[in-house]
Predict the structure.
Amino acid sequence: MKKRKLYVLSIDSMITEDIEFMKTLPTMGSILNGAAVVSNITSVYPTLTYTIHTTMMTGVYPDRHHIINNETFVPEMEHAPWYRSCHEFDPDVVTVLEAAKRAGYTTCAIHWPVTGDVDVDWHLPETWTAEGTPESMYQEFVRLGAKPEFLDEFWGEYGTHLNGLYDPAFTLLAHGATLAAIRNHQPDVIFEHLSLVDHTRHSYGVYARPVYKFAYFEMELLLSQTIEAMRQAGVLEDTTIVLTSDHGQTPVEKLVAPNTLLVRDGFIRLGEDGSLKDYDVIFKSAAHSLQVYVRNPSQAARTAKLLARYAAEEDVGFERIRNAEETEREMRVKGDFVFSIEGADGYAYSNALTGELVGKADNSNYKYSVATHGHDPRKGPKPAMILKGPGIVPGARLDGADIIDEAPTLAALLGVSLGRPDGHVMPGILIP
Ligand SMILES: [Zn+2]
């Protein structure tokens, strides 16, 4: 079996509708020219970045990898820790990175969510610290498996200006890491994730001008440098290039804080400073959807009635309430929550315990701003996958695939096994 080279770039929030614009950019356009294109890919629920990127890396539904939200459920913390580690997954879940490495490939992962503790040769896991200082970030990367000798290859140039997650320096750091890996090591398999398109959609809207005239141009510049680094390293001709993404976004008109109802009705008790003291029932935001937790499982039946009453009497936009069994059966998500709630079009949810029940969408919190995700993956614009290079059928078209099929397709391209994934190899994309 011939060893291949693979570069996968996840352009967070890239949607099928973006492809026509991407064709007008020099580097993206040249990749798209003759590429195989998989359009309108159905993602997994809830359509949150960490949930989906884990599926993109493993080919399994969230009921097996258990990354059911971006954040872990720690209701006492206003900013709960995000999921970082592969130790959450069922033991039989295999990442493409691990399968490739076991088969003798060298591997690199840059800012790919939930790759902490995955065995990767050159690794910059996606993570950050509350302080956001370069020193704390360096230690945090090492904690999740980055090797100091790799960090030191690009840190002086790209790491010393870090200033928290949403700073452009964070994107530049990832880019610097990718360039260093290509120039110094020519990894066989690279997975990279960049969030600029997603952040811009949150702030300005799904089809807003800055998405295309700012974020995509920035992505184009970064990608052109990455491609040039591959060319100079002598690996470009041998590399299969994949541009893909995790979810679309849909507009937010009302930002709802349903926990304020639970405070009003006595199911959540607050301390004098407004912080959480105790709860019987509490909502955890997944942006366009919610997960509902109870302190005591025996409260589930009573909670069902309460949720139905809120849906009927309050402006909460509860479109569909599923209990845990229905969520697992219909949406393939399993967690400690007892209900999941899909929001109606235009509704998004915060975790806020105080303040107004219904606010207007604004840009004060990126996650709940004028557009967001976390919705049923059958709704709204959908992600795409663009593949070009060795092993790919030029010009192939596939409309309406499932995102669980991405990892099995990439594994098949590399000739490695993911064990027992839920997805299958996409038809017509790979040269047999
Ligand atoms: Zn995302």
The two ends are 13 Å apart (CA to CA).
